Amino acid sequence: xxxxxxxxxxxxxxxxxxxxxxxxxxxxxxxxxxxxxxxxxxxxxxxxxxxxxxxxxxxxxxxxxxxxxxxxxxxxxxxxxxxxxxxxxxxxxxxxxxxxxxxxxxxxxxxxxxxxxxxxxxxxxxxxxxxxxxxxx
Length: 137
Fold this sequence. Notes:
Number of helices: 5
Number of domains: 2
Low-confidence stretches: none
Number of strands: 3
Mean pLDDT: 93
Helix content: over 70%
Strand content: 5-15%
CATH architecture of the largest domain: Orthogonal Bundle
CATH class of the largest domain: Mainly Alpha
Structural class: mainly alpha
Shape: flat
CATH topology of the largest domain: Multidrug-efflux Transporter Regulator, Chain: A, Domain 2
Radius of gyration: 22 Å
């Protein structure tokens, strides 16, 4: 188990998430602190921090809390040494499905960025045309 234990504030700073968001992820079961201090403060391991970083990367791609939970479950199960080859193959297929979904979501985001860029160009053209008309008047 990880030796380093950090309190929630340190984790929030390191990962770039709010305390509220980290607590929400705990409430939904996505990340459970590895321990508690004598005073009852949440303590997070490096593994917990890595899990939060993974969640943070999935959110902008539009994954729901349930989808993230399913994916984390796949990862947790793959880490188990008690799997037979059928179970491992099924989990790897689910992992491939997530990868396909990520690729599709990235393609969608790229298309949106391209549309936004086209809009910015159009907006600049309208602005320049309007300014040139103002100068003529």
